Amino acid sequence: MMFTVVAVSGAVGVGVLSSQAGDARGAGLAVGLALIPVPLVWWLYWWLDRYEPEPRRYKFAAFVWGGVFAVAISIGLEVWAATAWDLSDDVVASFVAPVVEESAKGLFFLLTFLRARRVLDGFVDGLVYAGLVGLGFAFVENIGYYAISYLGSPDLLVDGADGATTTFVVRGLFSPLAHPLFTSAIGISFGLAVLCRSRWVRVLVVTAGWAGAVLMHGLWNASVTFGGGVGFVVVYLALSVLLAGLAVVTVIIRSRQVRVLERSLSYMAQRGWIHPAELPYLSRFGYRRQARRHARREAGREAARVVRRYQRLGTEMAFVHDAVMTGRPVPAGVERTRALLAAMDDLRPDLVLPPAIRPLAAHRS
């Protein structure tokens, strides 16, 4: 029910922003242009999340938080600040907006940390949620920018469809990852803070992440407002290098997840918690997909859903168990491991898997 209300509220907000374009064609163009990068960026974060997939409802909530609540909070506070302190648009954009918008987006992580800490348990989790919060925020914000450009912006020499398209090239094609990049500093900091035992270290890590997000956002906005063409290019290139470095680190950490998953599942097989023949169908994407297809072919859709559920439980149990065994702080780690194992045992009588794969004997105990 909550997500339905939030989604409806988001749709109303999108409609209000797009209506700035003044007519149905302009509104449709603004929404259509804003939608173009969304599937690709969403797929990028889905790919990063494949090994330890986060609950869909939380990923959806992250996107909606960015596109509804963070936008609403930001608009309200920025309008109030501009009015109360008689600030120019340039000052608001360069100095107020970065603080307000990153704080509004960061509230998602604070609430998640306080109410559902177990869904944030590392670098990749924080990065994925940050990307989706930033994507939702950018989607709705871009609708407003495209609508204004359609009507005619003082920063552009053209209006109508040409004006909206020109703004789309800058925001939708050349910088679709700007907001996800800014917010990634906050998301990663919360993901790492969960792993820290000291409360003061957690506060320090999160504060540093928030400051990094505000700094990147502020440099980006100020380069557009005050930096001229050269200033913008310098900041754009610097943030591009930072984004590339983040991508490299993320790929390295993601590859480590593969090794952790295989090591933990192998240990479970040795303990007799799972059958050794199940290992490839739990740890390798190609074989996981093959197992679901086999179950669907042999016993129907429900059997395929059982296999998918079993695979997700096994993956989650493997990562939780590894955290417990390596001494990393994880909320109720032992209890969660037992509960996940019990859930897998409940599914096992209905499990339909392909025959054992002989070439993967190295995975067997």
Automatic annotation (TrEMBL):
Keywords: Membrane, Transmembrane, Transmembrane helix. It holds the Pfam family PrsW-protease. The keyword Flavoprotein does not apply. The keyword Mitochondrion does not apply. GO terms for molecular function: peptidase activity. InterPro entries: PrsW. The chain crosses the membrane at residues 28-48, 60-85, 91-114, 126-148, 177-196, 203-220, 226-253. This is PrsW family intramembrane metalloprotease.
